[in-house]
Description:
Layout: E1 8-21, E2 37-44, E3 55-61, E4 70-73, E5 78-84, E6 89-96, E7 105-110, H1 120-123, E8 130-141, H2 145-152
Antiparallel strand pairs: 1-2, 1-8, 2-5, 3-4, 3-6, 6-7
The structure holds ligand SLL.
Amino acid sequence: TKRVKGVQVYRPFIYGSIAKPVDPDNRPAGITAEHTHLWSVYVRGVDGEDISYWLKKVQFKLHETYANSSRMIESPPFEVTESGWGEFEVQLKLYFVPEANEKAQTLWHALKLHPYGPDAEGQKERRETIVSQNYEEIIFNEPVEGFYDILTSG
Ligand code: SLL
């Protein structure tokens, strides 16, 4: 568990959500009438990069209106897909590979279902796919030697 002094390693990733309105005239099986949207919330590499060499698993905490609102995703894709009617803040807890010897880190993402727009009435007509995502970089500050090797080999 010796740390590599004076070294910082950055790793980029994307976290966010994609939401699609449910077509009321063509409702997918199993989606109830109150559920207006299908959505996914995710953590992933940039340009499809596999980030599982540093990210072990992700816990997604959904709104308490969801059954089993805490979802642990143990392998890629680190993603939860659901249907629903409302927006809320999703808590994302990033767990690193054991070699990292690092504590989990928490992020928040505002699930977005609706387009930005001037009037609420008009929004009913606007059936758009909404992507809301952020680019982020995790900084491993003075990583332990074994993890430094993992980060830099490849
Ligand atoms: C709101 N404060 O009122 C927010 C809460 C919660 C959304 C939104 C549950 C779906 C289901 C669902 O969509 N919750 O499990 O039936 O807008």
